[in-house]
Amino acid sequence: MEDSMERVAKQCGKELDTFQRCILANQTSPSTCDPYKVALSQCAAQAVPLMSKIKAQCKPAILAFDGCINDANRKGLSDEETNEACGGRLRELWTCTERAQAELRDDGAKKQ
């Protein structure tokens, strides 16, 4: 997964930087940054095939984690409280991404 993140950072640096700056500037209304989020997602999908697989296969876990973070922000939870509230969702997302990565690796090995 680290390799994928490095590829996204390398190939989508402009989109990533723009999205991060927007989020930092709009912490009380992160939906303002949705156009930048979409641009980053599109770039990442092209840069790293694994990202497309993860987005498709792990959509429920992604939405659950995203929803948890948004709820925590609305409630004004501290970082520690947010980590506690959303840690389980993050573990579920991590497990799903690891499974997707293993499946992609196995599919690649079968083709060779």
From TrEMBL:
Residue stretches spanning the membrane: none
Alphabetical GO biological process terms: cellular respiration
Cellular component terms (Gene Ontology): mitochondrial intermembrane space
Domain of life: Eukaryota
Gene3D superfamilies, per database record: 1.10.287.2900
Domain annotation IMS import disulfide relay-system CHCH-CHCH-like Cx9C: ranges: 5-48
A UniProt-annotated Pfam family: CX9C
PANTHER family given in the database record: COILED-COIL-HELIX-COILED-COIL-HELIX DOMAIN-CONTAINING PROTEIN 5
Protein name: IMS import disulfide relay-system CHCH-CHCH-like Cx9C domain-containing protein
